[in-house]
């Protein structure tokens, strides 16, 4: 199953092989590398402000401790989210969603917001509000592995595209069913899972559901994904995958 389409290359958590993930330097690096799109993770601070962060806890990528959702934005801004990656990034701050979108406006094709954490339904509404205010609703895709989140987004943001993210292969059939009935929705799958379930991927393609694969850092994996009809590829290695993509006939 092949296609002449040239894939969209999506920078995973920004260009996370070049700069600390989910930070403004990582987003800037993705833009400079001419990625077609960026993906980043969104959590909610204790004050309700959406911020870019992957983990529920602060320890892995900052000098802070405890849950992101229990720290107000002012506290999060005091943390160092870059030194863990390298001395050159010491002092890098956790960005708010508003700051991230302001940096990307007019400079990138698509923005994939993976919603990792929230305190209450109104937090999701605030993410939508910030996205709309930025003028980037039309180029945004909200992703989540939480069907409660996806249901809420269908209610309050039908104009913004959604992608059902699958982390457990057992949930792939349900996610596909949901994506099929959710007009314009995508399916976001780990590339190994996709290749191990070709029938489900074929069903998605035949149903007109666009697929996003993560995380694809080697061209041979990108070739396999493309052969299965997957044309949106998320990578940590933006330069490597852009070189592969640009060499396609």
What helical percentage do the residues reach?
25-40%
Secondary-structure-based class equals alpha/beta
Rg, alpha carbons: 17 Å
Number of DSSP strand runs: 9
Helical stretch tally: 10
| Sequence of strands across the biggest β-sheet | 1-2-4-5-6-7-8-9
Poorly predicted runs of 5 or more residues: none
Beta-strand portion reads 15-25%
Distance between the termini: 17 Å
Order of helices and strands: EHEEHHEHEHEHEHHEHEH
Largest sheet: 8 strands, parallel, barrel
Shape: globular
Average pLDDT, all residues: 96
Question: What's the helix and strand layout?
Answer:
Elements lengths: L7 E5 L11 H9 L4 E8 L5 E3 L20 H5 L19 H8 L5 E6 L5 H14 L5 E5 L2 H10 L4 E6 L5 H10 L4 E5 H6 L1 H9 L4 E4 L4 H9 L4 E4 L2 H9 L3
Parallel strand pairs: 1-2, 1-9, 2-4, 4-5, 5-6, 6-7, 7-8, 8-9
Antiparallel strand pairs: 2-3
Helix pairs in contact: 1-3, 3-4, 4-5
Describe this structure in words.
This protein has 249 residues and is an alpha/beta fold. Strand 5, helix 5 and strand 6 form a beta-alpha-beta unit. It is globular and about 50 Å long. The mean pLDDT is 96.
